[in-house]
Amino acid sequence: MKPLKVALLGCGVVGSQVIRLLDEQAADLAARIGAPLELAGVAVRRLGRKRDVEVAPDLLTTDAETLVARDDIDIVVEVIGGIEPARTLIVSALNNGKSVVTANKALLAEDGATLYEAARAGNGDLYFEASVAGAIPLLRPLRESLAGDHVKRVLGIVNGTTNYILDKMDTTGASFTDALEEAQTLGYAEADPTADVEGFDAAAKAAILASLAFHSRVTAADVHREGITEITATDVASAKAMGYVIKLLAICARSDDGRSFGVRVHPAMIPRTHPLAGVREAYNAVFVEAESAGQLMFYGKGAGGAPTASAVLGDIVAVARNRIAGTRGPAESTYADLSAHPMGETVTRCHVALDVADKPGVLATVADLFAKHDVSIQTVRQEGHGDDAQLVIVTHRATDAALTATMESLRELDIVRAVASVMRVEGDD
Ligand SMILES: NC(=O)c1ccc[n+]([C@@H]2O[C@H](COP(=O)([O-])OP(=O)(O)OC[C@H]3O[C@@H](n4cnc5c(N)ncnc54)[C@H](OP(=O)(O)O)[C@@H]3O)[C@@H](O)[C@H]2O)c1
């Protein structure tokens, strides 16, 4: 059969590995698809840059717009990243009848609707497995394998950089700053780590996961986001003492009445017995709870050139097969049209450490204040005496609004010298 021509936009960490795999696996890919794939052009920003893979000079171009509009191109793979020019190029490719594979979580979470609409109008495919959790097959299971089920919750570690940092803090007692520095030295964190440590990267992925899980349109702006920069070695030690570990979680959960969902990214304590607690170093894992399937766990490498390229290649094979069969993969599914509820309505639990005056009646006053806000206490223990006295409280489930109001009132109590740490507790309900 005549070859399917592939245009690659971007030849960096991921793009160079896509080229390597297209070359090394050419025969197998052709057999699996039923036609060979031919790399027909590679758009980059700097022509003269040294690359991790050899690219024939006549394939390289800085004119991505012309490349995606070329009549002979069948499949466009976008691994440039960011919003523009990626959006314009993808839309242009789809408008020109191409199928598109992208790893661009930021764009999908900001303006996925525009991309889906262009795919619909151009009757082409839009596949994006690599955009969430790198190599881990996760979006296709949500989009296809679980299409007959009812997903209730998705709970995951979807950012390897923050997991590496928190894991180092947990295993060595390091501070956030020291653990971040080590992650940067080892190449797990960027020189500017903001997108990772402030939770922006995980929030984009949470938006994509929620949209697929709940068949609704979700953008990054719907995601409640908190990063890990405020987490101290004391928080980590305190969690450890109670049999918990702190992880940055992306949580997408339907409300109890099923009429809305919550989507959030924040650090949380999870029991050491929870399957996500054992996810070490820069690995990712996502726990999916569906009505009939029950609990499912997806685990693996969430980033890196070759792992991410594996997911991209899987998508290339899928869209290539569809083109040959004259069909399309799943389109956008937003029929449920649910919306994200405010963080205050989310039901969660809380671990609180209070520096308190060590005198009679303190516990009763604190307990009374929790009760006033309708927050019931599951466990309480006192640590230290005198000026070092600390009350460590774990609550039962309550709305985030009630928990936040409780913390504000605690700060106003004379007998509370400081609210030393507040952390949500997840994964043990
Ligand atoms: N790296 C990972 O582990 C990973 C994991 C999952 C998903 N992703 C996603 O994959 C995508 C690519 O990431 P990456 O790490 O491979 O990025 P990268 O290493 O920074 O590579 C970006 C590439 O895009 C090219 N480029 C930039 N602006 C361009 C423009 N205006 N026109 C044409 N080419 C342009 C660059 O060209 P030059 O080489 O000439 O500068 C470079 O080759 C992003 O969406 C990212 O979120 C990455």
- CATH homologous superfamily classification of the largest domain: Dihydrodipicolinate Reductase, domain 2
The proportion of residues in beta strands is 25-35%
Taking all residues together, what is the mean pLDDT?
96
Number of contiguous helices? 14
- Tell me which ligands are bound: NADP nicotinamide-adenine-dinucleotide phosphate
Rough outline: elongated
Structural class: alpha/beta
The biggest beta sheet reads: 12 strands, mixed
The CATH topology label of the largest domain is Dihydrodipicolinate Reductase, domain 2
SSE topology sketch:
Layout: E1 4-9, H1 13-24, H2 26-33, E2 37-43, E3 60-61, H3 64-69, E4 75-78, H4 86-95, E5 99-102, H5 105-122, E6 126-127, H6 139-145, E7 151-157, H7 160-172, H8 176-185, H9 194-197, H10 200-214, E8 224-225, H11 233-241, E9 244-254, E10 260-271, E11 283-290, E12 294-301, H12 305-325, E13 339-340, E14 347-356, H13 362-372, E15 377-383, E16 390-395, E17 398-399, H14 400-412, E18 416-425
Parallel strand pairs: 1-2, 1-4, 2-3, 4-5, 5-6, 8-10, 10-13, 10-18
Antiparallel strand pairs: 7-9, 7-11, 9-10, 11-12, 14-16, 14-17, 14-18, 15-16
Helix pairs in contact: 1-12, 4-5, 5-10, 7-8
The protein binds NADP nicotinamide-adenine-dinucleotide phosphate.
NADP nicotinamide-adenine-dinucleotide phosphate (NAP) is lined by residues 9-15, 43-46, 49, 64, 79-81, 85, 103-105, 130, 134, 303-304, 308.
